Amino acid sequence: MNQGLATRYLGLELAHPVIASASPLTATFDGMRRLEDAHAAAVVMASLFEEQIRAEDTRYATFTEYTAGCHPEAATYFPELPDYRYGVSGHIETLRRAAEALDIPVIASLNGVSDAGWLDYAVELEQAGAAALELNLYLLPTDLAASGREIEQRYLDIVRHVKAKVSIPVSVKLSPFFTAVGNIVTQLESIGADGVVLFNRFFRPDFDLETLGVKREVVLSTPADIHLPLTWIALLSRHLKFSLAAGTGVDSHVEIVKFLLAGADVVATASALLRHGPEHMTAIVDGLERWLSQNGFVSVAEIRGRLDGTHVDRAERFLRTQYLRTLSDYALDHALPTAHTH
Ligand SMILES: Cc1cc2nc3c(=O)[nH]c(=O)nc-3n(C[C@H](O)[C@H](O)[C@H](O)COP(=O)(O)O)c2cc1C
User: Which segment of 33-42, 76-85, 128-137, 303-312 scores lowest on mean pLDDT?
Assistant: First the structure.
């Protein structure tokens, strides 16, 4: 592999900056091995869910729910997961096997946000050989009495608790649904997190008008989804010393290059691998290598952060004026009165 692609993430030395994000593909040993064979720089194993921990012997339904009515192209990649070992012990055993057998780092993932007891499982994931731990934290704030500050405090407490328990690097995978994304990210850095992943992407429930029920289909992302993470990576990358992973909306090397230009250390992808199969990882990495050489770059370091927010004069104004300009262009094109005429 081209040495110029070498990347450091969470203190780990990676061959290049493209990693497999947590998904049903990374829930099993075979899935993780296929991703290594396809040249993933690292894999993030599917999360160990708080619910799995609370009901150790209950066959946790997440993965079979994913299977129901999912994106047809992806159907073959949501198999019954016959080799997924439900329950905590199976999950940890799969991690142990993968960490021992694979040459690439296997990053474990822990999901939940309720009271902290289950967080002790971070230690089990570390002991099973995880190279790092990703905290997939998500609390849908349905408690209308809980303020944003209280919810953020809960996130920070969880990260502090885990950091005190493990010695492997800990990153935090966030949703974009914070009032002040930059502030929570810098708070996470200041309490000792080793990195953040911007952003997670969740189920998008919908209604079925035939059954009058709620649909829980998986809707895979497309490149139209990269703008929010791209904006935040670009605005934050120069301000952060810890690791920054971008995620959401990757389909090919094109989105990888964009996230690197914004300043991401690594880019994580799930939907593209589910849609095209794990072997698509090879096409993405080859595409990145080709793009760099065709454009006269010998390393990813040369492009990393080249278009970050500091290169845009007064980022906030840039975002606003672009929007206004677009509105007035649209108005001119459609012979509408522009904002300036009022
Ligand atoms: C079917 C499916 C299962 C997922 N499972 C997990 C998971 O266990 N843990 C996690 O942190 N993220 C999970 N994700 C989120 C992905 O890792 C990723 O962050 C998100 O899909 C955005 O990246 P993408 O646009 O490349 O798909 C899952 C995504 C999908 C589509």
Answer: 76-85
Go through the chain and tell me how many residues it has. Answer: 342
Q: Which residues pair with 13 in a beta bridge?
A: 8
Q: What is residue 63's predicted lDDT score, i.e. its pLDDT?
A: 45
* CA-based nearest residue to 173, from 200, 142, 154: 200
Whether the bond between 199 and the residue before it is cis, its omega within 30 degrees of 0, is yes
Q: Angle, nearest 10°, between helix axes 253-262 and 227-236? A: 30
> What is the rounded (10 degree) CA torsion for 237, 183, 13, 37?
-90
Using the mean position of ligand 1's atoms as its centre, give its distance from the Cα of residue 132 in Å: 18
Predicted pLDDT of residue 332:
77
Q: How far is the CA of 311 from the centre of ligand 1 (A)?
A: 31
Give the residue, by CA position, lying nearest to ligand 1 atom 2: 23
Q: Supply the residue whose CA is at minimum distance from atom 5 of ligand 1.
A: 23
Three-class secondary structure of residue 39 per DSSP: coil
Q: Is residue 218 pLDDT above 80, yes or no?
A: yes
3-state secondary structure of 341: helix
Q: Identify the sign of the CA torsion 270, 275, 281, 286.
A: negative
Report the atom number in ligand 1 closest to the C-alpha of 173. 11
Atom of ligand 1 nearest to the CA of 197: 19
Ligand 1, CB within 6 Å, residue ranges = 21-24, 46-47, 66, 109, 111, 136, 173, 200-201, 218, 220-221, 247-250, 269-272, 274
pLDDT attached to residue 320: 65
pLDDT > 70? residue 143: yes
Residue 19 C-alpha to ligand 1 middle, in angstroms?
Answer: 12
**Got the DSSP string for 148-188?**
HHHHHHHHHHHHHHHHHH--S-EEEEE-S--TTHHHHHHHH
Taking the C-alpha atoms of residue 72 and residue 69, their distance in angstroms, rounded to an integer, is: 8
Alpha carbon of 26 to ligand 1 centroid (Å): 10
pLDDT single digits (tens) 240-291: 999 999 999 999 999 999 999 999 999 999 999 999 999 999 999 999 999 9
Residue 191 alpha carbon to ligand 1 centre in Å = 26
